[in-house]
Specification:
Pfam families: Glyco_transf_20 (PF00982). The protein is α/β, with parallel strands linked by helices. 46% of the residues lie in helices and 20% in strands. The radius of gyration is 23 Å and the shape is globular. Bound molecules: 6-O-phosphono-alpha-D-glucopyranose. 6-O-phosphono-alpha-D-glucopyranose binds next to loops.
Length: 465
């Protein structure tokens, strides 16, 4: 039986191995190792109608226990694709125009949340603490609170949280807000997101606010900012070895000494890839001397392929990429390399280390760990320049070393790309050092420890009331 139970919709697959786990996985695995931990969630499997449901997959990896469950086709459609990714994801990214709500999705969401709460309750020990992750599982706390009233339950939201006037577009906003009050501690990425949630609880539920603490009926929840980060040394080491890897050496040979601009994003409309392509095209228009001299490589593995918006985005970007290359390519130069596939973390970090410019220009993003990974991947003797959107959570920490853009201003982004490509080495180094100092000051280990310590110090809050 485990003392720390982490639950997230997606669980890192064991076969991904050391060095291939995502940044969040690395951080959480550390917290779990020291807490005799268990990580639960969806294993990625879908059980078709009429098929028998297989038992959970249980395994241990790196000193941590895992238990993953399949989703039925109906749960996958209504809970994951439907309410999580066609309702909450666009809503939390301020894209109400992309929301596709219906009641079947809503009931699937609450059903799966209850199911996971029941599964957790069977594994709870006397000393257990539970840490729930992300927008897929907001409602889990409500159910688990009923099943295990005294267990400290924390929640961390990895995405942004919208202002109250945007949130109330959701038909079930009250139910969703009430779900937040099932937790003892809620962690948000930035102060802005934190303030939005607190205000929504105040306006939407009439909850009372006292500093970080929100009271609603007999519940009391602390809402604080914990900006998620990366393991700086791990990323730097991966970048150094990745730079020596075969793919990285092949990339370097193919560039023929041309500086490279890099973007690495899941293929998602929140990432602003369309605007970024337009800004690159404008750079080549406004500064013709960069033609034939610079290569932009955009890595964008497909994501959420059953959501219509993502299918349309993919087709749209293929058109734009083809247009740019058709317009500017020479027989021996392709301006834009657009790759709909993923690579291991080591290879990606090695690619980033070679880049002169990193483009991280989301229209809205909870944190964006790629921005932090780009910085930690750079070599001090020749660091690349980070161009970051002021709408990414990471800008609160990296904004004084990066060039900060508005992704809706295509000309502004083009000017910034030119500035980054021509920035003198001394300025690049000075900016990079500033960002590295910030990253070293608050890394993924601090993030996990701070959250767990805060959660452990809290339960008394609900005993008082
Ligand atoms: C975002 C979410 C994560 C999610 C990831 C990949 O970063 O905050 O919770 O796992 O996207 O999306 P997917 O739908 O493939 O899990």
């Amino acid at each position: 039986m485990s003392d720390l139970i982490v639950i997230s919709n997606r669980v890192p697959p064991p076969e991904s191995g050391e060095g291939n786990q995502g940044g969040l996985a690395v951080g959480l695995l550390n917290a779990l190792k020291s807490g005799n931990g268990l990580w639960m969630g969806w294993g990625g499997e879908i059980v078709e109608e009429g098929e028998p449901e297989p038992p959970p997959a249980e395994y241990s990896f790196g000193g941590v226990d895992f238990a993953t469950y399949p989703l039925s086709r109906d749960d996958y459609d209504s809970y994951y694709t439907g309410f999580s990714n066609e309702v909450l994801w666009p809503l939390f990214h301020y894209r109400v125009d992309k929301m596709a709500y219906d009641r079947r999705k809503r009931s699937g969401y609450f059903r799966v949340n209850r199911m996971f709460a029941e599964r957790i309750s069977k594994r709870i020990t006397k000393r257990a603490r539970v840490w729930v992750h992300d927008y897929h599982l907001i409602a889990l706390g409500t159910y688990l609170r009923k099943l295990a009233p005294d267990v400290p339950i924390g929640f961390f939201l990895h995405t942004p949280f919208p202002p109250w006037q945007v949130l109330r577009v959701l038909p079930d906003y009250e139910e969703l807000l009430e779900a937040f009050t099932g937790y003892d501690l809620i962690g948000m990425q930035t102060d802005g997101d934190r303030d939005n949630l607190v205000q929504a609880l105040r306006h939407g539920l009439g909850a009372e606010v006292e500093g970080d603490r929100v009271r609603y009926g007999d519940r009391c929840v602390d809402i604080r900012t914990f900006p998620i980060s990366i393991d700086v040394d791990e990323v730097a080491a991966l970048a150094a070895s990745g730079r020596e890897s075969l793919p990285s050496r092949r990339l370097s040979r193919s560039l023929l000494e041309r500086p490279m601009i890099i973007g690495v994003d899941r293929l998602d409309y929140s990432k602003g890839i369309h605007q970024r392509f337009a800004a690159f095209e404008r750079t080549l228009e406004l500064y013709p001397h960069h033609r034939d001299k610079v290569t932009y490589m955009q890595i964008a593995p497909p994501s959420r392929v059953d959501v219509d918006e993502y299918v349309e985005l993919r087709a749209d970007l293929e058109g734009v990429a083809g247009h740019i290359n058709g317009r500017f390519s020479e027989f021996d130069w392709t301006p834009l390399r657009y790759l709909n596939r993923g690579y291991s973390r080591e290879v990606i970090m090695g690619f980033m280390r070679q880049a002169r410019v990193g483009l991280v220009t989301p229209l809205r993003d909870g944190m964006n760990l790629v921005a932090k990974e780009f910085v930690a991947s750079q070599a001090e003797q020749d660091p690349g320049v980070l161009i970051i959107s002021h709408l990414a959570g990471a800008t609160a920490e990296l904004g004084d070393g990066a060039l900060v853009c508005n992704p809706n201003d295509i000309d502004g982004m083009a000017e910034m790309i030119h500035r980054a490509l021509t920035m003198p080495l001394a300025e690049r180094q000075e900016r990079w050092r500033r960002m590295m100092d910030t990253l070293r000051g608050y890394d993924i280990h601090r993030w996990g420890n701070d959250f767990m310590h805060a959660l452990e110090r809290l339960p008394s809050a609900n005993d008082e009331s």
